[in-house]
Amino acid sequence: MKTLPIVFAAFASLPAWADEARLTGPLLPAYKTECGSCHTPFPPGLLNPGDWKKTMAGLDQHFGTDAALDAKTAGQIGAWLQQHAGRTMGRSPDPEPRLTTTRWFVREHREVPARAWQDPRVKNAANCAACHKGADQGQFGERELSIPGYGRRHDD
Amino acid sequence: MKSFLPLFALMAGLAGPIWADTPAGFIQSYSTEAARTQPGFRADVARGRAFAARDWGVSDKLASCTACHSDTPSNPGRHAVTGKTIQPLSPSVNPERFSDPAKVEKWFKRNCKEVVGRLCSPAEKADFIQFVMGAR
Description:
The structure holds two protein chains of two kinds.
Chain A: H1 4-12, H2 14-21, H3 29-34, H4 49-57, H5 71-84, H6 103-108, H7 114-118, E1 146-147, E2 151-152
Antiparallel strand pairs in A: 1-2
Helix pairs in contact in A: 4-5
Chain B: H1 5-15, H2 23-35, H3 45-53, H4 66-69, E1 77-78, E2 85-86, H5 101-116, H6 122-134
Helix pairs in contact in B: 2-6, 3-6
């Protein structure tokens, strides 16, 4: 009986855990060069399929920038994003989906102090590499984590 | 077939597809293009530096080239919106720069539209690369 809660806990956390496994994995070269030139090449699992679809459909007005791609590249990247999208991240509440406002992202970062988000070295919540030192290479482990002004974080 | 040749030559000359794979090659290619409308054109470091630093008043955050690329081409830059580190422009520290014509044209097109508010002229491109090369 004693082990039952543990078993339940393990199952309850399974979907989130499965999505976290999606944070690492090889990035499509076109995605890395086209999208990753201006911002972190975000792990595709950070948005659900519908939100990626919306994002790809609005590239000509992408957060105030014309990031339109040629049809062939857009098709290739779009298909890859659909294939690797997250299923349990929650929908971004923003009309232009932001992967920093999904339920999963907010929960994962709830312990990050407000001051750290405002640090000029961070600048933008989507600047993953400010804290996740290996983000540009797709590394999001605790070992690569260091928050500006707070240093390394030791989690349980 | 023979009669088409001059036509092809004319089209190639007008469209002026840039082909180069070294920084010096790009400067030369853009300068040749620029000289068509500005006889005797020569790329210039100081003009390139002024161009790179100029606030074009088009984009608030991406006001100038140097807003993201820093004013020292051998230094890494930082995207003024996303905060992402941008590798140095200078080929002396980042040999990948100015080695691929498709990439060079793509980024001039994109960034000029965004920062300058229009496409850049061949003269501006030649000056810009000269600035990147000259200030090492």
